[in-house]
Amino acid sequence: MIEAGRWDCVPAVTTDSTKISITADSTYNTVINTSGLRLAVQGDFSMLATLSPPVNAGTFLTLVGTLNSGDWWYGLKRLDVGLGAAGIVVNYWTGSSPDARASTFPFLPAHPGAFDLEVARIARQIVVFVDGAEVGRVSDPGLFDAGQLYLGFNVAPQRTLSVLALAAAVPSDSASNVTLSAAFLRVAARADTALRNRAEGRGFLVGAAVNPSLLSRDSYAETLGREFNLLVAENDMKFAPTHPGPGRYNFCAADQLIAFAQANDMQVRGHTLVWHQSLPAWLTKGAYSRDDVVSILHDHIDTVVKHFKGKLLSWDVVNEAIAYSPPYGPQPSFWRDTIGPEYVDMAFRWAREADPDVKLFYNDTGGEGLGAKSDAVYNLVKGMLDRGVPLDGVGLQMHVSVTGAPTPAAISANLQRLAQLGLTIHIPEMDVRIPSPQTASSLAGQATIYRGIVAACLANSKCEALLTWGVSDANSWIPGAYPGFGSALLFDEQLQPKPAYQAVLSSFEQ
Ligand code: XIL
């Protein structure tokens, strides 16, 4: 399970070919592998971990039967077993309090040496063995009654835990069973009445921005796979996560999203290759010359586009190259400052060289209706087409507010002029933020805005996709980015459909 678990995708875990290690600095470091590995457990079972020497006090194997919902402890069913200062410690949480039930069993590790820690559920008992000998047992308050288990570790400040092997076992003569699966391979149950079914009837793509760490939440993954036929990574295909060090690339999280999309028959938008945000410090604080930066960007685009070749519908090659405020000149950006304005055309040419088939988009915000920003977007893309730059489409982000969204008529007019350039249009980041607290009337106003904008897109044959920037109000970027606002998406914090959902659904039916 070291290899199968994709621990390289879990933040704060380091991996090499022989082991995984978890280090804590000044606070406890708890890591739970919610995206790479999930076990379905039935009956009696045991989990075995071979810990590498020296095994420090304050290092624990963590087994989670139910993830939290809300506060870190709320609903959490978790068992930590490991070495404390006075012996083997068994701590568990049952989801109703932040305080653990704690027991300690005398044990002195033989130094130096690795040891095998085994945690078994035997009938209604949790039994702990070290190197095959029982050390202690506690009664099981039903920690794994949900039939599943996530693996993790908990490490006290200034400690390191290294694990050489992880395995599960069941008694041979019983009905017990352990199977491995990954949250990102879950296949959601489909429903005839879902958004995607209605959209497919119109040859339309309806999608959402996704955070792979949320795929382990069953209701999130089920809603995503049931309702949408398109997804985009909210953050995981951006520069900082995919290119974390000079010449170093990481596609863990993005690959999980693509696996989920393929398992659920969804398409994927790539977002984004060139943006002034999500840039790592190694790049922006490095002493690079213009030539260096040109070759770093070329290598980035070439590597990332080739990695995903054949798997994506489109790439947002350049994102938000025009300023956010009047007079809508060029966006101040590391790329523009070091390379010059030609970075935009260069990026599109390199993307096309890396993949001749994927559709290449320019994506921007605040230029959805008519006005100075949308004129600036129009002029930029028109200029690119005139120069022969390979450009297939425009993304009109559509982060709007219930207190002031562009009218459907203005959006239709803008779609029309972009379509006349031969460009495909996506509405790739829609949300309609509401001042908190929401009211029945603000939710109704939001539904009207969604309805009008979806209808404007459907009415233009070049407008081919609409995505919301997130699935549920519980995980939206809006409260962080626009303090005082929230409730911007189609599903509420409990993943229940809102009036806006019904409005979008009924727009597809017309
Ligand atoms: C946002 C994400 O939602 C946040 O989680 C992240 O911290 C910052 O980026 N326009 C875009 C998106 O093109 O990439 C942005 O996403 C939202 C605005």
Question: What would a concise description of this structure say?
Answer:
Helix content is 26%, strand content 30%. The protein is of the alpha/beta class.
Description:
- The protein is an alpha/beta fold.
- It has helices spanning 195-201, 218-227, 239-242, 252-263, 281-284, 290-307, 334-339, 343-354, 372-386, 408-420, 440-458, 478-481, 499-509; strands at 13-15, 20-23, 29-32, 38-42, 45-51, 59-66, 77-84, 87-93, 101-105, 115-122, 125-130, 133-139, 148-155, 160-169, 177-181, 205-210, 230-233, 267-274, 314-319, 359-364, 393-396, 399-401, 424-435, 463-468, 485-486.
- The strands form three sheets. Strands 3, 4, 6, 7, 8, 9, 13 and 15 form an eight-stranded antiparallel sheet that branches.
- The longest helix has 19 residues, at 440-458.
- Bound molecules: (3S,4R)-3-hydroxy-2-oxopiperidin-4-yl beta-D-xylopyranoside.
- Residues 234-235, 319, 365, 397, 429, 477 line the site of (3S,4R)-3-hydroxy-2-oxopiperidin-4-yl beta-D-xylopyranoside (XIL).
Features:
510 residues; alpha/beta; 8-stranded antiparallel beta sheet; 13 helices; 25 strands; binds (3S,4R)-3-hydroxy-2-oxopiperidin-4-yl beta-D-xylopyranoside
Q: Please count the helical segments.
A: 13
What is the averaged pLDDT score?
Answer: 95
Structural class: alpha/beta
Task: Find the count of extended strands (DSSP E, 2+ residues).
Answer: 25
Radius of gyration: 26 Å
Shape: globular
Helix-residue proportion = 25-40%
The first-to-last residue Cα distance is 50 Å
Largest sheet: 8 strands, antiparallel
Q: Any low-confidence stretches, pLDDT <50, length ≥5? A: none
